[in-house]
Amino acid sequence: MGIRSLAAEFLPTALQGLGRIAHGPTPAPVVEASSFAALSDKLGYLPKADQRLVRDAYKFADEAHLGQFRASGQPYITHPIAVAGLVADWRLDVQAVMAALMHDAMEDCGITKPELIERFGAPTADLVDGLTKLDKLRFSTREEGQAESFRKMLLAMARDVRVILIKLADRLHNMRTMDAMPADKRQRIARETLDIYAPIAHRLGLNQTYRELQELSFEHLYPWRNAALSKAVARARGTRRDIVERVQREVEKAFAKQKFKMQISGREKTVYSIYRKMREKHDGFAQVSDIFGFRIVVPTLPDCYLALGVLHQLYKPVPGRFKDYIAIPKANGYQSLHTTLVSPLGTSVEFQVRTESMHAVAEKGVAAHWLYKSGDRSGKGGKDSLDPQHLGAIWLQSLIDIQDETRDAAEFLEHVKIDLYPDAVYVFTPKSKILALPRGATPVDFSYAIHSDVGDHTVAAKVNGEPVALRTELRSGDVVEVITAPGARPNPAWLSMVRTGRARSKIRHYLKNMEQEESRAMGEKMLAQALRAEGLQMPSPDPTDTDALALWQQLTRWSGNRNRGELLTDIGLGRKIAIIVAKRMAQLLAERGTLPDAVTLTLGRYGSDDATPVQAVVFVDGSEGASVQLASCCRPIPGDAIVGYLGRGEGLVVHTAECHTGKRLYERDSERWMHVEWADELTRSFETSVVALVSNGTGVLAQVAAAISAAEADIRHLDMGPENAAETAELRLLLSVRDRLHLADVLRTVRRIPVVLRVSRVKP
Questions:
Q1: Which of 94, 243, 483, 610 has the most other CB atoms within 10 Å of its CB?
Q2: How does strand 728-737 pair with strand 337-342?
């Protein structure tokens, strides 16, 4: 079964198996379990039979970790108990609690997965396996091993979301108990938590866990800054206590007057979020106005909007500071109304208005969704009764899509990191479907969010009915329409402007595949030509031809490649020299009794018009793509004498015969040069650089552009330089022309303009 089908089968059941969660507007503080008795007190929501299974798992973990101690000196088993306690606070099922107790058993105690399957069943063993790092494998660098471990964990999470919930509980307890660790290890773990685990918690809506992970990471990464800001917040809390209490009294009185049932609680910005805001806006602490705010919890969805009316009648709202996350939820499922009001003393105070179910989702995220899968608990229903499979499911599915395109672990982690910081904008399709995209997203991101086939064939876009460039940044409320063409394909330049991991991975995957196919075809062509120079024909690639198959296997073992296709790709990319591979193949064929053919040898080594030995020729027609590149230093065009340099890993690079850079490369690495020629039939135009010295004046640029257009050439780039006030100006133009004759015609046309003093092609 593939990863995609596994996700489809297990993601819904994983979300449904999270158990019931106690909820309310003000969650009780979590009491950390340090003994099994304390853990047992938290397991009352499980049936007695399940509680006995948890006890068995505890005994198994206790025996496995016997004699092991944490850096603090405590018995190691206290850590799994604490993790299981945090998992129980989320009301996860018995399998998750057992996996939390045994999450380090495979990694640290040599327990195997078959043992766990036999003792506790496959689902629990799969959870433990998903939590186990890949330390047993050898990696060239710590970063490579870390990236592979993240990839394993995230893909396990995509199959069963409980994996990441247990991992977040594990990381949270480790962060709470890091004081005994060496400073460098604390810094590394805190940085990893801030970059990866806290954003994952936020992406899944576990805001309580997200805030605590951020605070603890900040405390260990920047202890001095944390201490200074904590003191400043404590002082501000004291000076603003009176205004906070007054606002709360007045709000309660206003709602009581309307006979409106609600609960109000104070909300204080975390130290890390204050620090981040100060850095982003380059403000001092005094300029951060929304340190304190209020949260209002009401019974039903319509009450949220009625409560907003009461607040706006009581205090004046700040224009532009209202956000409706109920109508358009955040990407992680968060729903609330946000409004900023001016308090009696003139300070800004933020209010968040939500229902009880919204509050549970806001604090517990994915762990709260099971409770509301069949509607609002109160039976009122409403728009906030969210589908339990929706929250996080889209992002989890995108992990699988990225994995399908990206086999390199570091690249996979890079794409995931991009998606972990979704400061979202909300845009509409022409059919009024809402899509959440990261801030800075472009129409290309939008097209890949719809479907990879749409993204691959995108050629243009319209925003709000107006044509726009594909690199245009989208804004909330934009209606986006993409225009596709069957023959279009992704442009490498898109990688510099897309913002979503999905779009980036799809583009890279397509370009890699195209490069592989083109390089393989180029490598096959080069090897065939090199073999003809040895008087031999290319052996058959037919897998049923056992002799040829054995020959190719011998050759790939010698070259260090896995198969014939990989060897040909390496030749096309310049990682292997076709002539050397051909000589080795000739040697292997000679051992089998195959000798050079005189006719083939003559055709391969001599041209038709003379008897001078020449290298095999590669013809350039402009359709070669990634396997053949025209050097940007000399920009050759048809009609120029050209040579080809087989760069290491970059394919064949074509230079003009007089290019100084090409000549230096030849002196350094002469065996990598190939004979190349222009094909008779060309498939596109080619770019070349031109410089024109003109008299500075009104309309000069328009005259030059009109002359170039009249000569049927295109301007791809223009640079006028900084000398705006001088009598003359130098225009540097990148022109698209057919060949040297066409370029000569363009230059003659431009020279006829009276304001042009001199024009010529740029040569290196």
A1: 94
A2: unpaired
Catalytic amino acids?
Answer: 107-108
User: How much of the chain exceeds pLDDT 90, in percent?
Assistant: 10
**Nearest Cα to Cα of residue 525 among 644, 608, 661:** 644
Measured CA distances, 123 to 10, 50, 211, 226 (Å): 10, 14, 30, 42
Are 446 and 500 in contact, with CB atoms under 8 Å apart? Answer: no
Name the phi and psi angles at 143, rounded to 5: -60, -40
CA distance 465 to 461: 9
Asked if residues 704 and 731 have their Cβ atoms less than 8 Å apart, the reply is yes
pLDDT average, residue stretch 4-9: 38
48-64 and 78-89 helices cross at what angle (nearest 10)?
150
Specify the pLDDT at position 593.
Answer: 76
What number does CATH give the domain 3-221? 1.10.3210.10
Name the DSSP class of 327.
T
Q: Where in the chain is the domain with CATH 1.10.3210.10?
A: 3-221
Checking if the pLDDT of 611 tops 70, the result is: no
**How does the average pLDDT of the chain come out, rounded?**
76
Enter the pTM of the model. 0.53
Where in the sequence of the chain do the CATH 3.30.70.260 domains occur?
686-761
How does DSSP classify residue 179?
T
Confidence of residue 667 (pLDDT cuts 50, 70, 90): confident
Check pLDDT > 60 for residue 25.
no
| Tokens linked to 541 | 């690639």
Query: What's the rounded Cα separation, in Å, for the pair 207 and 217?
Result: 15
Q: For residue 377, is pLDDT > 80? A: no
d(CA 233, CA 291): 8
pLDDT at position 743: 93
| Cα four-point dihedral sign 253, 258, 264, 267 | negative
CA torsion, ordered 437, 438, 442, 445, to nearest 10 deg:
-60
Q: What are phi and psi of 726, to 5 degrees?
A: -75, 165
Average pLDDT over residues 225-254: 81
Q: How far, in Å, CA of 667 to CA of 264, rounded?
A: 79
Contact 530, 578 (CB under 8 A): yes
Look at strands 651-656 and 628-630 and give their pairing.
parallel
Q: Specify whether domain 686-761 bears CATH 3.40.50.2000.
A: no
Which two structure tokens, joined as six digits, stand for 107?
């990694």
Spatial distance between the Cα atoms of 502 and 397, rounded to a whole number of angstroms: 10
Give the SS3 label for residue 727: coil
The CATH number of domain 233-372, selected from 3.30.460.10, 3.40.50.10490, 3.10.150.10, 3.40.50.10740: 3.30.460.10
In this predicted structure, the answer to whether residue 48 has a pLDDT above a threshold of 60 is yes
Chain segment 393-407, per-residue pLDDT in tens: 555 555 555 555 555
Measure the CA–CA gap between 551 and 562, rounded to whole angstroms. 14
296 — phi, psi (to 5°)?
A: -115, 125
Return the structure tokens found at 442.
């472009």
Which strand (E) or helix (H) includes residue 351? strand 348-355
| Token duo for residue 300 | 């039903």
Q: Which residues, listed in sequence order, are joined to residue 686 by a DSSP beta bridge?
A: 737
Angle, CA of 702, 721 and 714, to the nearest 5°: 40
Exposure of 97 in the CB half-sphere (CA atoms within 13 A): 29
| 114-118, 149-153, 415-419, 699-703: segment of lowest average pLDDT | 415-419
